Amino acid sequence: MRTHYCTLLLLLSLLLSSTTFAQKNSDQSEVKDKPFKERLVFGGGLGLQFGTVTFIEVSPVVGYRVTDRLEAGIGLTYKYYKYKDFYFDQTTNNRFDLKSNIYGASLYTRFSIFENIFLHAEYERLRYNYDDIRIIGGQFIREPTHANVDGLFLGGGYKQRISSGAYFYIMALWDVIEDPLSPYKNPILRMGVLLGI
What domains can be seen in the chain, in order of their start residue? Predict the structure, then answer.
């Protein structure tokens, strides 16, 4: 099943690349004339939530402008999740928190179909590290465990230039894999800023 999704992402990337190469030479020469450093973009996301549910996310990305319309990049992510008093032992009145650390990486491609409208495809792999709490013989047992979760996000969005090398974006994505352990629920809304050097 994962092979099909990886193949789909590869085909989509090739399709976007071939569409880009078919555009006018003037678009290609604008990017081609820029040095490598000026074609890089940096950005990402930061998420914070505190209370009964604590959520902290740091997700930096580095992208490369292949042409004026095509950007490809990589991202890293770290998520900390804590749900206070998630488990309750009725016999002892003890409460246990659910905590997890999630690490991951992603590859993305973004193609501008119009000046401010783009298509987005992204493959992400996450690794969960958490304590699984089970009831065995009437007692709560903490068991360290981990799981790998894959996501394939397809969608599009809107971007607004802030300067010649930077833009703000908002996008809607759909995780076509829909792994039951995924931290995402469809549709996925994201926003952020990418800055050029």
Answer: 2-196 (2.40.160.20)
